[in-house]
Amino acid sequence: MNETQKPRAPGRFAGAWDSDIAYSFRHSPVAVVAAVVSLIIILAAVFAPLIAPYDPFNPASLNLMDGFTPPMEPNAFTGNVYWLGTDNQGRDVFSTILYGARISLFVGFAAVLFAMTLGITLGLIAGYRGGWVDSLLMRVADVQLTFPSILLALLIFGVARGFIPPAYREIMAIWVLIVAIGLSDWVQYARVVRGATMVEKNKEYVQAARVIGAHPVKILLRHILPNVMGPVLVIATIGLALAIIAEATLSFLGVGVPPTQPSLGTLIRIGQQYLFSGEWWILLFPSITLLALALAVNLLGDWLRDALNPRLR
């Protein structure tokens, strides 16, 4: 090698691979397994139209004679064999799980994004402005914390559906569900961001930005927000699992997504009706999928919380 040639600087990928978080991830078997399980379920849901052997939500492809077919056993009338059996309408359970997971994940991600956006915005305003603005927003947050989030989501969902014309209720059901779950979960983001903002706004780099006349919005978005995102990402990861469970709970109670587009919660509600009549597979497989997804995301959130905690490094 030429003596004047300088060694190459490590690439961006190599630098990320050698970071503390990547090192912690590689040496945490629980985090690796949780990430693999989450990735498998998410990819299977995203590519459901390519993976699923049947379209369970197309009435033209359903045959009621295939109803209640046990897993890996030929149907007595049609002779068709299904990996995980069929439900009461003859829908392939494996296909319904893939399509149902798509809806559950979409609602979960969208609800977390909505709650995170609302909570971060209100938390930044409360922490930076202080005074009566901070007092008002935090008292609203304190009042909301006195109610269980699932009951609050039920209330918001019911009130929102009351303002929607009956002809559009099924079309807007998923979006109403997203708003209901998001409005019930924004408080934790706001309180964490508000506390971090109150610490950051008194630091020298923020004072310097004020001295040079930077606009408060620019200070919040460019200087303070990047420094408060660590705890927010941890809450969002754990909140994703909680949002998926909340969606499943609301759908199980019959106030979630419409029956024409059932999620994992709707599939579990359908399955429990036939559990004691011997058709156990209708309930078991969607329940295992929901449990695996929620547990894997929760374990990832726990690992991320420890990885971002400087006291544990």
Give a structural overview.
Helices cover 69% and strands 0% of the residues. With 313 residues, it is mostly helical. The protein has one domain: Orthogonal Bundle (MetI-like fold), CATH 1.10.3720. The protein starts with 11 loop residues before the first helix and ends in a 6-residue tail after the last helix.
Query: What helical percentage do the residues reach?
Result: 55-70%
Query: What is the molecular shape?
Result: elongated
In total, the number of strands is 0
The overall pLDDT, averaged over residues, is: 87
Could you spell the SSE succession in H and E letters? HHHHHHHHHHHH
Total helices: the number is: 12
Low-confidence stretches: none
Rg calculated over all Cα atoms: 24 Å
Q: Mind summarizing the main beta sheet?
A: none
CATH superfamily label: MetI-like
Structural class: mainly alpha
* Proportion of beta-strand residues: under 5%
From the coordinates shown, what is the CATH architecture?
A: Orthogonal Bundle
CATH class: Mainly Alpha
The CATH topology corresponds to MetI-like fold
